[in-house]
């Protein structure tokens, strides 16, 4: 019968005199809840001694990727997604020739006035 390793049978590798409390797993912490616009709650834990100013007001929600805030009644709003515009939609938004000439004339007039003042 061959056995490998030097661990004593029935013991956990890495176990020693230090318990979980010595590793910091039971340090005093506070829980802070964040809510996103879809109603998802995310709880983050911070050290109990941390100043209130150091706790962030908003985070990115891991559930939805949206911003999440500490105020449950007023979470950050959803970002407005602009719909895709086709080339034809941009062409329809273009100014007419008369409007373009009027804008150009106004811009040139303003430049002439500025040069006259210098």
Automatic annotation (TrEMBL):
Signal peptide, first to last residue: none
Residue segments, region Disordered: 1-25, 54-80
Pfam families in alphabetical order: RbpA (PF13397)
UniProt xrefs under InterPro entries: RbpA_sf, RNApol-bd_RbpA
Spans through the membrane: none
Keyword terms, alphabetized: Transcription, Transcription regulation
Function: Binds to RNA polymerase (RNAP), stimulating transcription from principal, but not alternative sigma factor promoters.
Quaternary structure, from the entry: Forms a complex with the RNAP catalytic core and with free principal sigma factors.
Name of the protein this chain belongs to: RNA polymerase-binding protein RbpA
Native organism: Microbacterium memoriense
